[in-house]
Amino acid sequence: MALGQHRSTQRKVPAGRDDEERLTADIIELARQYGRYGYRKIAALLRHSGWLVNDKRVERIWRREGLKVPYKQPKRGRLWLTDGSCIRLRPEHRNHVWSYDFVEDRTHDGRKYRMLNVVDEFTHESLAIRVRRKLKSIDVIDVLSELFVLRGVPGHIRSDNGPEFIAEAVQTWIAAVGSKTAYIAPGSPWENGYVESFNARLRDELLNGEIFYSLREAQIVIESWRRHYNTVRPHASLGYKPPAPEVFIPALAAWPPARATPAPSSMQHLAEGGAMN
What we know:
disordered C terminus, alpha/beta, five-stranded mixed β-sheet, 37% helix, 9 helices
């Protein structure tokens, strides 16, 4: 009261944390790189890159900086069948149930191309994305045969009733290698929910924001995104961890990866060695 002001009127200006500015810059950069991620996925990426930060602090900075995921259309209601077909086979372990489906898009010249997506439903890992102008039943067998050699034969393979999947050659080949087909009920895409969810992520996080001027460009960028999806991208259903982390990858390294500087050839090494001598 020496100055005529009560003690309760005095406030200490909060100084903030020493790392607040650097953390804010990293959050903004991650939000710029991964525009479809919310603050929880951004927080997981920060922890992956070495930050000791919880979701609440990231959310506070996220809201303070006015960051948000762009508005999306509301989800539509399900159509339930009277025979209870929504009760479906559930994956119990790795290689128990794979699912696959097609996605279509167009290159800049307006020409269509197709993607065959294969997902392990238990691990949520993207096993393959085959990108071609046209994909037929023989391409389905080709992709699956490569995966069977690399990863083993799954117990079941789930798909819709598209002609490429129900073709007699595909069914016969799958049965011959010891797997089983699990077709969903016609007009019930939610029964193939794992790959449908993956298709939505692929379109939302990549296809809707990229212009591909050639098929080759689409193949390279989509494969780079697939590797990022498996090894870096946090998955909420997996505790904000990637489904198949391989090595430590800085979270701030966006896909596609930077072009590496080519290593000098052996002839260059010999020439340089001769010059030094």
